[in-house]
């Protein structure tokens, strides 16, 4: 569309499927990754947390209730926190029926299984360390799993970004593996950007919180890999807002409807 400004290079923003293509398949499941692939979307976003027995699993809430049948399967186990269930227990849960009967039997994936599927589709991964305060050491553990799966090899590094709402968590990831690209979720004050730019490559704000001026202010700082800080914004699900934030010059748009956003910003 003609009113949409491209960024400085004229490239449309990268489109990322939020929790997979989560408007069309249950979030953070293999089905949501498959759906993104089917739509031709290269980047998927997901959330990682940890079970009682130390397994990394892909789920957004710190609680299993909203996206699984945990209350039926384990009625006596309120308040149904992810961290209070073993991986074997979580593997029994149905993480698809809440979304629709076609997805009955979908599971909460382990991080390994999720990455295997992303790899099979040759997709790229924006991995969010969710609620790190609940899971001491999750940054090191996540990097270990990524490494085991080959995602820290030089050939894979361009396909991976690790992000968090916790600046401490982002800094820890950067300190442990400086080669890994990182993102800080939020809309920090411009005065805080110089400090953040020491360990994060991206500032990833909600779309309602930004403007052309803010995006330009972020771009003016250089990140730990010697490039301007990038902005990936979330969660934009309609064409008008996608065009608007593309006009602000954002580098990426995180969306539950990646087909809608791609069509809105393509061909600029
Ligand atoms: O990737 C951005 C977005 O996922 C942050 O919010 O709550 O969906 O994890 P949330
Ligand atoms: Ca997320």
TrEMBL record:
This is Glycerophosphodiester phosphodiesterase. It holds the Pfam family GDPD. Keywords: Signal. It comes from the Bacteria. Residues 13-265 form the GP-PDE domain. PROSITE patterns: GP_PDE (PS51704). GO terms for molecular function: phosphoric diester hydrolase activity. GO terms for biological process: lipid metabolic process.
């Amino acid at each position: 569309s003609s009113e949409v400004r491209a960024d400085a290079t004229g490239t449309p923003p990268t489109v990322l499927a939020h929790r997979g293509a989560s408007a069309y398949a249950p979030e953070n499941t293999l089905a949501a990754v498959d759906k993104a692939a089917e739509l031709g979307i290269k980047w998927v976003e997901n959330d990682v947390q940890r079970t009682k027995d130390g397994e990394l699993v892909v789920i957004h809430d710190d609680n299993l209730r909203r996206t699984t049948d945990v209350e039926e399967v384990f009625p006596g186990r309120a308040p149904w926190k992810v961290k209070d269930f073993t991986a074997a227990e979580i593997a029994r849960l149905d993480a698809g029926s809440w979304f629709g009967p076609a997805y009955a039997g979908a599971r909460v994936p382990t991080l390994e299984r999720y990455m295997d599927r992303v790899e099979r589709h040759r997709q790229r991964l924006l991995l969010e360390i969710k609620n790190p305060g609940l899971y001491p050491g999750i940054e090191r553990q996540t990097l270990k799993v990524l490494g085991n799966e080959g995602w820290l090899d030089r050939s894979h590094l361009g396909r991976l970004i690790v992000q968090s709402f916790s600046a401490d968590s982002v800094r820890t990831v950067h300190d442990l593996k400086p080669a890994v690209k990182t993102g800080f979720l939020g809309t920090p004050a411009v005065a805080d950007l110089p400090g953040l730019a020491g360990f994060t490559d991206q500032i990833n704000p909600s779309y309602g919180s930004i403007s052309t001026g803010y995006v330009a202010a972020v771009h003016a700082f250089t990140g730990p890999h010697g490039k301007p800080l990038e902005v990936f914004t979330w969660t934009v699900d309609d064409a008008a807002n996608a065009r608007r934030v593309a006009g602000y010059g954002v580098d990426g748009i995180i969306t539950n409807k990646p087909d809608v956003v791609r069509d809105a910003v393509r061909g600029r």
